[in-house]
Structure formats: structure tokens, C-alpha cells
Design goal:
Length: 308
């Protein structure tokens, strides 16, 4: 099969698509033929080596990718709750999703709800679990106001809608080209950049909770606005969070069952109650261009790879 591999830390040019062996599923595993795979900014950080102390790459032949969707082509022994041909949403903890086939524990896939766009299904694991963990952390109450930075990004757009569903009003910090998409989801857009604090104060007399999906000073902005440290959550700026007693959120290791969260959010999206826009689809062999696009850090929703 073809799979993304890299042998050294660096920019997207270190990524290669290689022929590698398909690993047959053993007891408790399934083999999934991947249709689409999601990409996430954290994969860029790992590939560049900036987090090598926490997430070291295994060279040569490091793989990548957490999010995928596809169909089961083979069952390992002892797997009786899934069937060959079944469409599934997958979650790899082993950076193996960017490949034509993924061999994975059966409890790391969940059935894809009918009617769900497979490109959206392939974008859910990291974004949905992280978004849910941020909302659980700040625990919005009906009638409160929650601000979300990078509200139009992959995590932010789900976190904003999940916060909205608690009955809170949500302010989404985004650029001008994302404003209408947020308005359409019931989120009040406020433009980032110079004068942000004044615009936020004008948009809401009081901000009760703040979800930071961008870093670069938003934790301090939240505290300047008078948000209590325990009601600020950041998924990016762990250093500042530690200084001010602000909770940090690591979505995929949060105290939750990721399969339950992904299943629930997938069903809500399939039912039209939540939306995860797909901003671009790249052919598998254009994986470098997909990551270069993601690295611009602008756009609404998720970028996916079309694998097979
Ligand atoms: N801790 C965890 O477990 C965890 C999990 C997932 C992700 N993350 C991290 O969380 C961050 C968000 O991930 P993601 O997948 O949502 O990223 P993403 O989709 O790449 O986010 C892009 C968004 O950032 C917005 N943006 C650009 N400049 C901004 C600014 N100055 N202020 C506010 N927003 C700005 C863009 O808005 P416009 O297009 O309107 O400019 C765009 O919608 C990344 O740093 C990622 O590594 C952490």
C-alpha cells in the first residue's frame, strides 16, 4: 500500500509517499481501507521536531495521521461487533492514518452514521474530542457568554457550536472572511487584531468563559477581560496557562471515551444539528500542499486528504 513517511524533521518537503506492507489484523484488530484522512496542525509541529521531547518521531519511516474514515476489509479474530464492508470513523494513536490501509484495534473505530459526509467523518477524532474537552472544562451555563479564539478553525468551529448548545451566547474571534460562516451557525463574530479587547467589551458587557484555540496572547486577553482563570481553557498556550492557573486541554487524552464523543458528534452532524465545514480536499499525493495550506492558519473548517 501507499503511506506517508518521513525520515527527518523538517518542512513539508520531508514528506514522501512510499510503498509499505499492509499489516494483517491480529486478534481484536480490523483492517480499514481508508477513503479520506484528516490533517491537523499538531502533525506539523511533530514533523518539524518542535515537540520531539514529548512526541519523538521514530526514524526511519515515521508515519503520520490520527483521523481517518473508510470501510472495513478484514476482521481479526474475536471481532464480532463489526462486519466487512462497514463504513467506519477511525482514530489512530499511532500516527498511521495517512495510508491506504490502517490496521487498528477494533475499539478505535466507530460506525459512520448514515448520511454523514465521509470527508467530515475523516476529520472528527482530534477536532471533536478536543472541542468537547474545552467545553467540558469551561462548563458554560445557559445565558452566559463564551468567547472562542480561532472560532472558525477545525477545533474552534465545533467548540463554538458545542458551547452554543449549552444555552450560552458565543462570540467567535475570527478574520473577516470567516465572519458570515460563524453568523450562519449562531455565533457572533468579532474580528481579531488591534483593538480586539475593546471590540469584545462592546460585543458583550461580560465574558464568563474563554476557549483559546490559537495561543499567542489569548490567555492574557481572557484574564484582562476579567474571566476567572479556571474558566479559561487553552489547547495551545500551555506555558502561559501554567503561569496563571489556567486549565490546559489535551483533547485526545482528556478524561473521556473518545469513541463515545466522536460517535455522538458524528450523529449530530449527520442530523444537521452541528456543522463541520470542509474547506479543501487534496489528493493523497498532494499531501505536502495540503499541509502548506493548513500552515497558513486561515480558513473555515477542515482540510482532508482523499486517499482512495
Ligand atoms: N491540545 C490539543 O489537544 C489540541 C488538539 C487539536 C489542535 N490543537 C491546536 O489547536 C490549534 C487549533 O487547531 P485547529 O485544527 O482548529 O487549527 P486551524 O483549523 O488551522 O485554525 C485556523 C483558524 O485560525 C484562525 N486564526 C488565524 N489567525 C488568527 C488570530 N490572530 N486570532 C484568532 N484566530 C486566528 C483562522 O481564522 P481566519 O480564517 O478567519 O483568519 C482559522 O479559522 C492548533 O494550534 C493546534 O495545534 C491542540
Amino acid at each position: 500500500m501507499k503511506a506517508v513517511r518521513f525520515d527527518e524533521y523538517g518542512d513539508s518537503s520531508v514528506l514522501h509517499i512510499r510503498d509499505v506492507n499492509v499489516i494483517p489484523p491480529t486478534s481484536g484488530q480490523v483492517l480499514v481501507k481508508v477513503q479520506y484522512a484528516g490533517i491537523n496542525p499538531g502533525e506539523i509541529v511533530i514533523r518539524e521536531g518542535a515537540m520531539r521531547d514529548f512526541f519523538p518521531a521514530r526514524f526511519p519511516g515515521e508515519g503520520q495521521g490520527s483521523d481517518f474514515a473508510g470501510s472495513i476489509v478484514e476482521l481479526g479474530t474475536g471481532v464480532d461487533h463489526l462486519r466487512v464492508g462497514e463504513a467506519v470513523i477511525g482514530m489512530s494513536d499511532k500516527r498511521s492514518a495517512h495510508a491506504e490501509y490502517v490496521t487498528i484495534a477494533a475499539n478505535r473505530v466507530v460506525p459512520m452514521p448514515k448520511g454523514l459526509d465521509p470527508r467530515v467523518a475523516a476529520s472528527l477524532y482530534v477536532a471533536a474530542t478536543t472541542a468537547q474537552a474545552t467545553v467540558d472544562t469551561v462548563a458554560p451555563q445557559p445565558g452566559e457568554t463564551v468567547a472562542v479564539s480561532a472560532a472558525a478553525g477545525g477545533v474552534g468551529i465545533l467548540a463554538s457550536q458545542l458551547a452554543r448548545r449549552t444555552g450560552a451566547d458565543v462570540i467567535g474571534i475570527a478574520g473577516p472572511s470567516s465572519a458570515q460562516a460563524l453568523r450562519d451557525l449562531g455565533i457572533q463574530p468579532v474580528e481579531y487584531g488591534e483593538g480586539l479587547v475593546e471590540r469584545l467589551r462592546e460585543a458583550a458587557p461580560r465574558i464568563d468563559a474563554f476557549i483559546d484555540c490559537f495561543g499567542h496572547g489569548y490567555v492574557e486577553t481572557a484574564l484582562d477581560l476579567g474571566v476567572a482563570p479556571e474558566r479559561v481553557a487553552t489547547i495551545v498556550d500551555f506555558g502561559t496557562a501554567q503561569r496563571f492557573g489556567v486549565p490546559v486541554v489535551v483533547g485526545t487524552s482528556a478524561a473521556m471515551d473518545p469513541t463515545a464523543v466522536v460517535s455522538r458528534i458524528a450523529r449530530l452532524i449527520a442530523a444537521g444539528e452541528l456543522s463541520l465545514p470542509i474547506r479543501a480536499v487534496y489528493p493523497f499525493d498532494e499531501v505536502r500542499a495540503a499541509y502548506d495550506d493548513l500552515a497558513t492558519r486561515h480558513g473555515v473548517g477542515k482540510i482532508v486528504l482523499s486517499v482512495g
